[in-house]
Amino acid sequence: MAGLMLTAMLLLVGELWRLQIPRQSDYESRFISQSIRRVRLPGIRGRVFDSNGVCLADNRPSYSIAIFMEEIARPGAWKNTAARGMELIETISDRIGLPVTVTTDDLMKHIHRRLPLPFIAWEDIDERTMARWAEKTSDLKGVDIYNRSSRIYPRGDKFSHLLGYVGRADAVQDADGERIHYYLPDLTGRSGLEALYNEFLRGEAGGKLMQIDVSGFRHEDMAVRSPKAGGDLQLTIDAEVQKYAVDALSTNRGAVVVLDPNNGDVLALASGPAFDANRIRYGSYYKRLLNDPDNPLFFRTVRGQYPPGSTFKPIVALAALLEKEEMAETTYTCHGVFQIGRRTMRCWIGRPGHGELSLRQALQHSCNVYMYHTGLEIGYEPIRVMASRFGLGEKTGIDAGVGVEKPGMLPAGSKNDTDLCNMTIGQGRIL
Question: Which residue, among 183, 176, 118, 107, has the nearest Cα to 147 in the 3D structure?
Answer without folding.
Answer: 118
